[in-house]
Each structure stands twice: as C-alpha cells, then as structure tokens.
C-alpha cells in the first residue's frame, strides 16, 4: 500500500532503475499505473548522495513535465507521492491497458499507412510537448502505449528536457536509448525538437521495416553506427518512404519541421507517396578538420560526459565518418540507467588508418613494436624509429601507426596497463589510429573508468565512465591470442560481403552472466549501407559470421 491509498496489484514492467505497477486507487476506486523509481543498489543514496538527489529531482521533473502537457496522446498524471516515508517519489498515472507499440512491433511489420496514421498522432503529442517547452528525448516503441482502440499514448518523460529548468544531467552528458537517439544527442551537442523527430522517424522505420537498421551486437557498436553510418533506404515503407528518408539524416537542420512532417505523414496515411525533401547524396557528411595532436595528459580531453571527441579528417574526397563518445543514461522499460560509450573510426582496406597522417613531436615518441604506415603485421615488429641520434628524422615527418594489428594491440595494452592498474577490462575497442578501454574502479564491482591510447608513450585516464551493464564480467586482455587478428581481418574481408568497407574495428566482448555468453571478440566492417561482423573466441577461432545479405 502506497500512501495509504494505492494498492499495488501487478508488475507491468521495469528495468535497472525502477518498476511500473498496476495499482488500485482506493479513494477513487479506479485502476491506475504507478511508477516506482528506485536504483538497483539499495545503498545508492549512501554511496552517491548527489546522484540520489538528482534522481529524485528527475522523478519530480517528469511529473511536472507531464503536468504541463494536456493532450489526448500524452499520458495523464493524476498524483505524485512524495513524503518522508518514501526514499523516492512515486508517480501515479492513467492506466493504458492496450500494451505498447514495442509489443505490436514484435508481432511483425505494420502497414505503412497505419504506421503513418500512428506517427501523426505521436507527432501531435510531441508538438504539444515542444510547445510547452518540453523535449521528450526518449521516443521509442516501448514508450508509446496503445489504448484499446489502438490510439497511441506517449509516456515516460523521465529524461525530458524542460526549458528554464535546472539541468539535472552532468555537464555535456547525453541521455536516451542508443537505438533511437539522434546523432547530435549521441555526440553531446546541443539538440532541440529536431532530435525528437529523428527518434520518431526511427520508430516508424522499425515499425514498417520490421528491424532496426543501426542496431548492432552491442551498445558500443550501435552508438558508432548512429554516429557514422547512413540509414539504409527503407524497402517496405511504401508511401511512407520519402518521409523516413527526409527525417533520418544526421544534419538536424535538413530534417522537415513538425508542420511539414505532419503533411507528409497525412499524405502517406492516404496512400500517396511522400517525396524526400532533398536528394540523399546532398546530405552526405562533409570532411571536417583534423583534431589537434595530443600533448599528453594535458591535451584535448576524452569525450564522454564532458566533451565530444574531435573528428578525424579524410584525404581526397573520401567521406568522413564521425567518431564520438558520450556518457549515456539509457531508458529501459520506462526507466533510466547508466550507459556506456560508443565509438567509430575512419579506416580503409586492410585495416590501414585512413585519416590524415599525424606528425610526431620526436622520434622517441613513436610506438615501438608496431609497423608504421604499412598496415601489416610482420611479426618482428619493425620500429617506426630507433630514437638514436644516428638516425635523424625531421620532427615534422608524418608517421602512421596502425594499432589494428597484433603488435599494435599489445603496445596499446602495455601503455594502458599502468594507468588502468591491470589488464582486466569491461570494454575494449581497437581502431587503426587509437584504442579505448573501460576498466572497473578499484574496489568496485560495477563502476568503470575510461582510458585511451593514441600512439606514442602516453596512455591516459579520461575520467569516470559509468556503471557496467548488469551481468558483465571483466575479461583479462592477456588471455587473448592477438596474433590471430590479421587472419581474422582477412577472413572478415573475404566472408562479410562488404566490398569497399569505410570502417574497420575490433571489439572485445566480455562474458555475461545475464546472456550466458563467453568472452570473445568481434571484427566489424561497414560501408554506407550497413555493418557486418564476425565473432571469434579468445584464441581467434571464428564462432559466427554475420555477413551482408543483399
């Protein structure tokens, strides 16, 4: 019994930060939904009192955000229980008993015209929220409930941004569900209502196509795809296709505004094809300036809760793929939980770094044991420079160091080990030009810090990362046979069906007690249309191949 009035009857759903219940209001004698927000660790308030304060404030902000919106397609808040007897507030809302759009999507693709009608109704809810100064920031199928007549109701404003309100997120951090976040939010840039429209577009794409075009094997890979890959043209969207193509572009300024989008959805709902606002190629990413070189711990900061990562440039007319990371709060089952980082690098064939060559400040700063500029893995580890006076080299001479090799990975691990305090990680991603790692905070079983290595003599700690995904078990990098990497890259080139990959990287997959998986690694290749990957165990034996299906 909550507040002496609300009797909990049945658990409707939940995630890492709380539960939604079906309850009975004994005063008004009606059933309601009541949202309990509670962190998974009972000692959370003692360990992180500031985090607990922010969580409490976020719950109240959700209730106030909803209270500002009076719309038939936005869930109604009836009451907030906030008393000294409860550690966190409870939100009492109308009970929408028809299930969620996610459950509907799980049964198969929707008819494009029906999806367009539903999209208009969700859009009308978003327009009402935006007019009230509220950005939802977590539009996804699980947060769209369905009434008995099929009408959608937008819910879970728990991470909504309310204008003029106090910022309840760490500076520069980004919150949302990776699969449905707009690229500008993933990158940590300022965002507005256009980001909610991207999320609506992705929701509709999934509804009609029956799959998510950017979802990858893990969160890191999904975030990288959102940032750097074009959304494949829809195949089953029919009259809705033009609206989806117009929405799902990385430049928020190129997306249709809400009024234009409403007209496009109305046309699609009538069965009339919608025409993209601009040619798809016109919205291709343009080359960006090279990042400034690192100068050691005092150099440009790691991205995450604080800053977006600089974007590497590409020579010639090659397209640039954005590389960023951001601390996330992931929306799961109507709640928010701590998230992880997503990364992507620009590479060319055979694993060679494809960004502009970076000058080294001294010969001794080049990585020994790694072939420089060749993209090969000769096994002997020819040094890029000897560091002796009898082999002079101009400081401005550019050197390439390919870290996506056996020697390159070992060098990165050697440089990271002292700053991480060991070789056990909960996340490890290797690109040709740098490596990112996540390792548990000493004495903690679920909090990790972030680290990076970009070549040279310095690996750095980039700050607090977050909380690992439930069930993740740290894995020791020294238990991997890195000599198997070149063969795996060749196998990926041969079997994944990506003829001209624009991206290439390796992801270490820690074991999981939740998914009952063993430690391993994955090699990813991607182009303008999609990613493919192969999985291998720690000894380099291929266990599964997820090839391109044309």
UniProtKB/TrEMBL annotation:
Instruction: Please report the name of this protein according to its UniProt entry.
Output: non-specific serine/threonine protein kinase
Q: Which Pfam families match?
A: Pkinase
The residues listed in the UniProt record as binding ATP, with positions renumbered to this chain, are: 35
| Signal peptide coordinates | none
Q: Which organism is it from?
A: Wenjunlia vitaminophila (Streptomyces vitaminophilus)
Which stretches does UniProt call biased (Basic and acidic residues)? 347-360
- Biased composition, class Low complexity, residue ranges: 361-375
**Entry keywords, A to Z:** ATP-binding, Kinase, Nucleotide-binding, Serine/threonine-protein kinase, Transferase
The terms under GO molecular function for this entry are: ATP binding; protein serine/threonine kinase activity
Q: Tell me which residues make up the Protein kinase domain.
A: 6-275
EC number(s): the record gives: 2.7.11.1
Segments for region (Disordered): 272-314, 347-399
Return the Pro residues bias intervals: 286-313
């Amino acid at each position: 019994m909550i507040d002496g009035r609300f009797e909990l009857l049945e658990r409707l759903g939940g995630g890492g930060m709380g539960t939604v219940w079906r309850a009975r209001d004994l005063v008004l004698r009606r059933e309601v939904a009541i949202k309990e927000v509670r962190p998974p660790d009972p000692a959370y308030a003692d360990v992180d009192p500031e985090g607990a304060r922010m969580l409490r404030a976020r719950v109240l902000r959700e209730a106030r955000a909803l209270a500002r919106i009076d719309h038939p397609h936005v869930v109604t808040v009836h009451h907030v229980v906030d008393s000294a007897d409860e550690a966190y507030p409870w939100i009492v809302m109308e009970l929408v008993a028809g299930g969620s759009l996610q459950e509907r999507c799980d049964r198969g693709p929707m008819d494009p015209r029906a999806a367009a009608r539903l999209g208009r109704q969700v859009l009308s809810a978003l327009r009402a929220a935006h007019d009230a100064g509220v950005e939802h920031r977590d539009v996804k199928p699980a947060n769209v409930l369905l009434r008995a007549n099929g009408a959608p109701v937008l819910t879970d404003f728990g991470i909504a941004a309310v204008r003029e309100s106090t910022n309840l997120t760490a500076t520069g951090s980004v919150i949302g569900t990776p699969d449905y976040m707009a690229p500008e939010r993933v990158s940590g840039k300022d965002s507005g209502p256009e980001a909610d429209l991207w999320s609506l577009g992705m929701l509709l794409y999934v509804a009609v196509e029956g799959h998510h075009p950017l979802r990858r094997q893990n969160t890191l890979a999904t975030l990288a795809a959102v940032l750097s890959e074009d959304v494949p043209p829809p195949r089953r969207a029919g009259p809705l296709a033009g609206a989806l193509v117009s929405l799902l572009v990385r430049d928020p300024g190129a997306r249709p505004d809400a009024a234009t989008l409403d007209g496009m959805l109305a046309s699609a709902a009538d069965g009339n094809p919608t025409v993209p606002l601009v040619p798809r190629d016109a919205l291709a990413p343009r080359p960006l300036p090279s990042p400034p070189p690192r100068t050691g711990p005092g150099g440009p900061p790691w991205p995450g809760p604080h800053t977006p990562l600089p974007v590497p440039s590409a020579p010639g007319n090659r397209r640039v793929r954005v590389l960023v990371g951001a601390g996330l709060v992931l929306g799961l089952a109507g709640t928010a939980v701590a998230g992880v980082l997503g990364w992507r690098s620009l590479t060319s064939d055979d694993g060679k770094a494809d960004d502009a060559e970076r000058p080294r400040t001294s010969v001794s700063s080049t990585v020994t044991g790694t072939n420089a500029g060749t993209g090969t893995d000769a096994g002997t580890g020819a040094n890029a420079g000897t560091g002796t006076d009898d082999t002079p080299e101009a400081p401005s001479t550019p050197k390439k160091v390919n870290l996506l090799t056996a020697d390159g990975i070992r060098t990165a691990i050697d440089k990271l080990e002292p700053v991480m305090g060991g070789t056990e990680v909960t996340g490890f991603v290797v690109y040709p030009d740098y490596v990112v790692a996540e390792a548990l905070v000493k004495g903690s079983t679920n909090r990790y810090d972030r680290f990076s290595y970009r070549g040279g003599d310095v690996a750095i700690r980039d700050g607090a990362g977050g909380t690992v995904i439930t069930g993740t078990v740290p894995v020791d990098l020294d238990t991997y046979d890195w000599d198997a990497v070149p063969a795996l890259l060749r196998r990926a080139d041969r079997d994944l069906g990506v003829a001209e990959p624009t991206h290439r990287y390796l992801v270490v997959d820690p074991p999981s007690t939740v998914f009952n998986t063993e430690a391993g690694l994955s090699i990813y290749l991607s182009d303008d249309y999609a990613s493919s990957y192969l999985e291998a165990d720690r000894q380099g034996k291929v266990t599964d191949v997820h090839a391109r299906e044309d």
